[in-house]
């Protein structure tokens, strides 16, 4: 579970609620089911209209990526690549055929299989670069669905507020009911802004951010396969791959036994 997502939403809601209570309000009054229905599902439907079908499916399919920790372990992936480079240098690249056949990562499997089959390095690079571009476009489009839904939320909140005010003004002969209607109308505005900046929009940006790790991992794999194909020294190849790590991550060599 990605605590930055959960804590971010929880803290945002908590601070708003605490502030409301300090001013003498009651956060429970904001829980207006009609406003929720008018704003959130409508914004998501509008975003669906504007988004290609495959990306709408991708947005919901990849929702788990938003809530979970990054699915990429760069250290483990680099170690795996270097282990393969050591085998290739010692026993020849054909010795990697059995490893390629049982790999779960389809991208790595395809590239390594091409290298084992003797495909030229430039052809491997061209093929895998196309796959990387398609993957990047897929995640970008999927993330944009949530971002677009978030951008639409405030406008849907405005629509909900206007509808509520129209109904409230029909009760001019009953000031108490009219006041309640006006209060209910503005809850739609709250849902619109909160949905945009606490939930839907941040979900989209989080998915886009995590997809960068997924794409970076594929670049690491591509560089590793090309290094293996060229017969690079495993130590030299590892130094190159470690440069892909974030400045916050330790760049320790597996050859360093100290």
How would you explain this protein's 3D organization?
The protein has two domains: 1-31; 34-242, no CATH class. With 258 residues, the protein is an all-alpha fold. It has ten helices and no strands. 78% of the residues lie in helices and 0% in strands. It has helices at residues 3-22, 33-50, 53-61, 63-67, 74-91, 97-101, 106-116, 121-169, 175-230, 234-242. The two termini are 33 Å apart. It is elongated, with a radius of gyration of 26 Å.
Overall tally of structural domains = 2
What would the principal axes of the Cα set say about the shape? elongated
Portion of residues in beta strands equals: under 5%
Please give the alpha-carbon distance between the first and last residues. 33 Å
User: What is the strand tally?
Assistant: 0
Low-confidence stretches: none
Task: Name the helicity range.
Answer: over 70%
Radius of gyration: 26 Å
SSE ordering: HHHHHHHHHH
Average pLDDT number: 92
Number of helices: 10
Query: Which class of secondary structure composition applies to the elements?
Result: mainly alpha
Biggest sheet: strands, sense, closure?
none
């Amino acid at each position: 579970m990605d605590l930055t997502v959960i804590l971010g939403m929880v803290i945002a809601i908590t601070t708003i609620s605490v502030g409301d209570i300090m001013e003498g309000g009651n956060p429970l009054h904001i829980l207006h089911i009609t406003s929720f229905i008018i704003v959130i599902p409508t914004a998501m439907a509008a975003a669906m209209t504007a988004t290609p079908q495959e990306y709408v499916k991708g947005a919901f399919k990849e929702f788990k990526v938003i809530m979970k920790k990054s699915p990429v372990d760069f250290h483990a992936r680099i170690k795996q690549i270097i282990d393969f480079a050591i085998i290739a240098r010692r026993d020849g690249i054909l010795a990697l055929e059995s490893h390629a056949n049982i790999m779960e990562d389809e991208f790595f499997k395809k590239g390594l299989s091409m290298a084992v089959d003797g495909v030229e390095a430039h052809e491997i690079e061209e093929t895998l670069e196309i796959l990387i571009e398609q993957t990047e476009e897929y995640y970008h489009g999927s993330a944009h669905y949530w971002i677009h839904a978030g951008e639409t939320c405030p406008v849907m909140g405005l629509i909900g507020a206007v509808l509520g005010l129209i109904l409230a003004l029909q009760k001019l002969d009953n000031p108490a009911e009219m006041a309640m209607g006006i209060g209910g109308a503005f809850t739609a505005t709250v849902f619109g802004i909160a949905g945009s900046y606490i939930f839907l929009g941040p979900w989209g940006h989080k998915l886009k951010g995590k997809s960068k790790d997924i794409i970076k991992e594929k670049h690491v794999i591509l560089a590793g396969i090309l290094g293996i194909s060229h017969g690079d020294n495993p130590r030299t190849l590892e130094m190159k791959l470690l440069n892909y790590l974030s400045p916050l991550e330790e760049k320790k060599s597996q050859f360093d036994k100290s």
